[in-house]
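The pair is quoted verbatim as follows:
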Amino acid sequence: MSLPGYQLHQGQVTIEQATTTVTVQLTKLVTVLFTVNEGATVLSNALVTVSPKGAKSSRYQMQQHTNANGQAVLKLPANAEFSYTVLLPSYAPVLSSFTLGEQDLSIEIPLQRKRNNVTFTVTDGYAPLSGVTVDVEGTTAQTDTAGVAKFALLPGDHTYQIAHAPYAPVAGSITATEGFNEEVVLLQNYTITFVLKGDDGTPLAQAKLTVAGTEYAANPQGRIPVTLAPSSYRYTAQCPQYYDTVGAVTVTHTDAEEEVLLRSWPAYPVVFTVTSGQTRIPRATITVEGKSTKTDGNGQAELRLRNGSYSYTVSKSGFETKTGTFTVADDGTSIGVDLTKTSTAVRPIDPLLAGAKAMPNPCQHGLTLSGVAHAQRIIVLNAAGQQVLIHEPNGAEEIYLDVATFPRGSTSCC
């Protein structure tokens, strides 16, 4: 016997006379809506199984998979208690119950992903290490006295990190399956001091070293201490005006030094010629990148420099200082610098020498000076400001100077 909204009823009746009265009590059906989700995400294809509470046979069970909206709809007898389970691969099963009255019912069922028990066993290669923090993607646990840290992880791949002084940090990845154990051996760090030198033995304070993915800078003595775990490492050493050096170092269970030699670039001659007009200037100071030298008697100075761009300063007492730049590129170069004399204040003429005269001017062979009786000393200078003659008149009113042997050019008397 069926009636919309009521449970189907089946039974037997024995008819013993023409008229027989049979009383049938129908059970009302109530709609129960199950919604299965994981947070804000609905879960389809979850198997919802409902059975009357206390039922011992599966013949009374009703099952349905959730649809694309994460829902399963069942028609159940009113005024009864039911047990239900929800199963979905990779999720923890849910077992619960509910009491149904005569009103429709909605039940929301949140599922949690099934987690696998995973352990990390940490040792130093000989004995377990306790108190070590193991970090699995932000979730941490510490090892116990047996060196074991325990996690409940979702199935799949996970990364981990372990940092525990004085041991070298360790990072890795695992696939979380039930009962998986990751064995980790921590190695103690040791200090390797790299000593960087040029091929002439000079410490390279500007050198840098890259090892194990990290760049380090040398101290003024060209030394770089690096903390590393026992293993083999490749390194690259670099320094301005030196060729890169690539090498390898093996770290054992002890501190050590590693000497690294860098071959310098070739140096090329740079010749400075310092003049003032047509006159070459000796003893002029030439400064290039903080290092100074002086011109020789011919107004020249030679430096040897490697490839690069440089700035220079040329100075000389009595002349204006000159600056400039130049570049060395696989060859020598010559640089000419012309200095300009500085202007100086003219001292007032002594009244006793107001009548002093020099004739003829200009001159080629001789020069007559008159009115110089009161002069203590007469000094003749060339255009570069260098003394070419010193003469004492000794009270003579007039003197004659032989200038035929003087270098050609301008001279002055004082």
Summary: The chain has a mean pLDDT of 88. Residues 6 and 26 are 6 Å apart (CA to CA). The two ends are 146 Å apart (CA to CA).
